[in-house]
Specification:
Layout (H helix, E strand, L loop, with lengths): L2 E4 L2 E4 L10 H5 L2 E9 L2 E2 L2 H14 L8 H14 L5 E8 L16 E7 L8 H4 L1 E5 L20 H13 L3 E5 L5 E4 L3 E6 L2 E4 L10 H12 L4 E3 L4 H5 L3 E6 L3 E8 L2 E2 L7 H16 L2 E2 L2 H5 L1
Parallel strand pairs: 7-8, 7-14, 11-12
Antiparallel strand pairs: 1-2, 1-6, 3-4, 3-5, 4-16, 5-6, 8-9, 10-11, 10-13, 13-14, 14-15
Length: about 300
Amino acid sequence: MTVVFLNGEFISRDAARVSVFDHGYLYGDGVFEGIRAYNGRVFRLDEHLDRLYESAQTVMLQVPLTKEQLREAVLETLRRNGLRDGYVRLVVSRGPGDLGLDPRKCPQPTVVVIAEGIQLYPQEAYSRGLRAITVTTRKIAPDMLSPQVKSLNYLNNILARIEVNRAGVDEGIMLNAAGYVTECTADNVFVVLRGELCTPPVYLGILKGITRETVLELARALEIPATERVFTMHDVYTAEECFLTGTAAEVAPVVEVDGRVIGDGTPGAVTRRVIAAFRGRVAAEGAPIFPQEAAA
């Protein structure tokens, strides 16, 4: 049975309860991270923790544990679930208060760590490629809410996801108010244009994804020209290749957008090189879950 870390205790999934007065439930008032474990190691755990604490700082939420304590909570949750490969959802909410908005009424934040398996897309999608659409739901502007805050309020993305579901495809590309490509409902987006790997710049209002940063690093190591630049759906339609990146999605090729075939309709050469390099990186890098293995 799944074991969950909840406010300093390890309890069964069925016993894990959060108050209905928690501001995370009532108002989406909290922050989170999605983290992956591969081959007995947690990939870029410290980077995820840094981002969680930065999100909390921006929304003036005091995480009641130190980074080292939370780091150990993540590793111990994986250990107690016997997971060498899996997905960790780390959540810090404002905690229980009253029915009003005032965060001062929430004296104690709620901290949850969940570790289970995850599969965002079917495995065959990584070999055949995903189908995507452009959604009508526009990305929230960065001057309204910083996209660098991974908050519990994901309604913008969920509305976009509903469009994807109704269209019967795998993913949806979100645009900003000016019509530029930002990101997908849960992933960052890359295209290959005239041999150059391109991804939207952070200032357009996208999350600076950790998998996105890893792919940019890998591109440099592979000597693939890569840049952050503004582009439109015309560029996506006429791209040689397209793929998505995210902690849950990893690196996922896209072969059709709005009915247009991308490239030759199969995952391209650059995409395949990036996927192979990414899989090699995550299999070898990360915080060891079982210290005895690291010492061996």
